[in-house]
Amino acid sequence: MAHFGLGDVKSVQQVRIIWPNGKQQILQNVAADQVLTVWQRDAQRNRLIFATQNRGPLRVFEQRGMVPRWLPVRSDDAYALVRFQNGRTRRYELYSGASFMSQSVRQIPLTKDVISVEIVNFKGQKRLFDLSVPPA
Q: How far apart are the first and last CA of the chain?
């Protein structure tokens, strides 16, 4: 777990994470007063998600099975409506919650059966990603 007191600083230009295996991850323009969730892959290519909140312990969660792609979201995005081939819709909340499992990874998993994603920001503005047509 890493907890950084920044005083009155509103953001940090760069956060550099050096993992035990020597790999580095760099986060740019990180806002202060927030919980960050970062991940790395294990030897079997499963995604490892590291999460902490405030001064709580560091928790590691393993995501088994590969998600083909991830759609990153913006800091002002509130939620996403993901539509599937079977006609169902799933809503992903994109805010940072108060518990470990409510922390959004700020990405939408794009499995093979996703046909569209509509992202709505906190001002109610919408962006639509149509995935039913492959890119040219």
A: 43
